[in-house]
Specification:
The protein is of the alpha+beta class. It contains nine helices and 14 strands. It has two domains: 112 residues, no CATH class; 230 residues, Phosphatase 2c, domain 1, CATH 3.60.40. Strands 5-14-13-10-11 form a five-stranded antiparallel beta sheet, covered by helices on one side. Strand 8 and strand 9 form a beta hairpin.
Length: 458
């Protein structure tokens, strides 16, 4: 996890449980404090009122000295049984009250002093109970209001986040949360935003992957279309080729061109770049070259014309290298042209069994509008004697690497041609392809391998 993401996961400010606890504690403390003050003052005022009324009525009853009668048998004593309390009924109205009797006197002469107080204590208790219930309801209402306010502060952002998640779930991965708060809710919002961003990146990656897969499919189709469907047959000569495709698709290709006058053209081309753009450039170059070369005519003039057309069609920096061999079977002469191709034409001479490299000068097709290309292009004539072999290859044949990353290289490739050049064409191609595949092993090829050969019968 990066430092930025680690920072995102930190909660700013107090946590949700701490904020909730603190808010509820403060609110309840205020409510309980106010309720305690109100309850204390109300109880004190009620007690004073009851006390005053009781004393006033007790004095009036004491002055009237009404007859009284004990109600029930319960008697409560105080101060070593010198004070007694009992429930009584008194007066003509048979009112209820409480009598407090005090025993006094000396020398065996004892008497009782009676004090009757009104007995409406139940009414006083109801008033006090009502006060307590009122305070309880007040605390309950205020506490509920505070809890609702705090819960609302939490619920609204969460509801907003739920709506944001619904928006994202519907496929709008560009949507971001609009919650502006702190604590765990902010962390949740950031997590949702990060999730949406990841989904957006995943969607874009999936789209790019699907485009890439389609490009690979199209490039593979183009590559198959670039390869010739059949190998031509020429009296007194054998022609053949092999192709090893790489995972990295491109536009490299080879071709055979049969001219109306009986001459045979062999063409191997490398295309700069990889993927679908390179494949399309390769298809374009092949179409131009086939059209112009199959019509016959001067090879130098044809390549100059194709260069000018291709330069106007491909984007800047793209180009095609070409090695072209035009064989006159009757004369046993090959005309060789090279347009910036890295590998030269390899001639295996039957006379001494050695190889010779024919590499005329030239630059890639489409690289230049024409001034440099025209001045650098060079044409050579090469004899093809009985038993001789000509080999054309693209760059992939020498940049072929083994699992250790070591390339086959031009020197080893020429050595293979010299070692197997005298063999019949099918055996020569089989050995060369087998060696290339074995050398690469499980390593991925950097680019396609294409080898074309022509041998004159001995």
């Amino acid at each position: 996890m990066t430092r930025e993401r680690a920072t995102d996961l930190r909660v700013g400010g107090p946590k949700l449980w701490a904020r909730f606890t603190l808010s509820m504690t403060v609110a309840l403390l205020v409510v309980l404090g106010i309720s305690g003050v109100v309850l204390y003052k109300s109880a004190l005022r009620l007690a004073e009122t009851v006390q005053e009324r009781t004393l006033v009525e007790a004095v009036q009853i004491l002055a009237e000295q009404p007859e009284w009668e004990q109600e029930g048998t319960e008697v409560k004593t105080f101060r070593k049984e010198r004070v007694q309390r009992a429930h009584v009924r008194y007066g003509e109205d048979d009112a209820r009250g409480i009598v407090y009797r005090h025993k006094y006197g000396k020398d065996g002469r004892e008497a009782w002093a009676d004090l009757i107080v009104p007995g409406d204590i139940e009414l006083t208790q109801r008033a006090f109970l009502g006060l307590i219930l009122g305070m309880f309801l007040l605390i309950l209402v205020v506490g509920a209001a505070v809890a609702f306010a705090i819960a609302n502060q939490v619920a609204k952002p969460i509801e907003s986040i739920v709506m944001d998640i619904g928006q994202i779930a519907s496929g709008d991965f560009h949507h971001r949360t609009k919650v502006r708060t702190g604590g765990e809710v902010a962390l949740l919002a950031r997590s949702v935003d990060r999730m949406a961003k990841s989904l957006q990146e995943g969607q874009e990656t999936e789209l790019e992957l699907s485009i890439r897969e389609r490009e690979v499919e199209v490039a593979a189709e183009v590559r198959e279309a670039l390869l010739p469907q059949q190998t031509p047959s020429v009296d007194g000569y054998t022609v053949g080729a092999f192709h090893i495709g790489s995972e990295e698709l491109g536009g490299d290709f080879y071709d055979f061109l049969e001219l109306p006058d009986g001459r045979l053209g062999l063409l191997v081309c490398d295309v700069s770049g990889t993927g679908l753009p390179a494949a399309l450039v390769g298809a374009t170059a092949r179409a131009y070259l086939r059209r112009e070369l199959e019509a016959g005519g001067d090879v130098e003039e044809i390549l100059r014309r194709v260069n000018g057309i291709l330069h106007g069609d491909v984007r800047r920096g793209m180009y095609v290298t070409a090695l072209y061999v035009l064989l006159d079977p009757a004369e046993g002469i090959a005309t060789v042209a090279c347009a910036g191709h890295k590998l030269p034409l390899v001639r295996h001479a039957a006379e001494d069994g050695k190889v010779r490299l024919i590499h005329p000068e030239g630059i890639g097709l489409g690289f230049d509008a024409g001034s440099i290309f025209d001045s650098r292009l060079e044409i050579q004539q090469v004899p093809v004697d009985p038993g001789d072999r000509l080999v054309l290859a693209n760059t992939g044949a020498v940049v072929l690497a083994n699992p250790a990353g070591e390339e086959l290289g031009e020197k080893k490739f020429y050595g293979l041609v010299m070692r197997h050049g005298a063999e019949p064409t099918p055996a020569f191609l089989e050995h060369l392809e087998s060696i290339c595949r074995k050398y690469a092993g499980d390593a991925e090829l950097a680019r396609d391998v294409a080898v074309v050969t022509l041998a004159r019968d001995a």
